[in-house]
Prior knowledge:
Distance between the termini: 52 Å
Low-confidence stretches: none
Strand content: 15-25%
Structural class: alpha+beta
Amino acid sequence: MNQTIEVWCEDNYDFMKGESYPYKVAEFSTTEEAVAYMCDKLDEQLARLAKNAASAEELLRGYKYGGTDYYIKGSLLFSSWDYAEQAAQKIFESVCCEKK
C-alpha cells in the first residue's frame, strides 16, 4: 500500500483562522520530497521578507508574525519555525549582499 505524505499549512498571523486554515497544499510519496518542498517554500518566503528586513532577527520576527507555517499532517518530523531559525541568517546575508 502506498503511503501519501500530506503537506499542510497555516498562517502564523491569522489566529482567527475561520474555515480558510489549515489547508492541504501538496501530496508526496516520500517524507524527503515533502521536506524538500517545505524548505523550498520557506526559502522563497524568507527571501521575500529579507528584502525589507534590517537584520536576520527582524527577518525571523517577520516570518513568525506573518509567514506560512508548513507541516506534515500527523507528524512532528519538520518544524517551519525551527527551519526558519536555522535559515534566517544565511538567507538574510544572501539577500543583503544582492541589495548592495
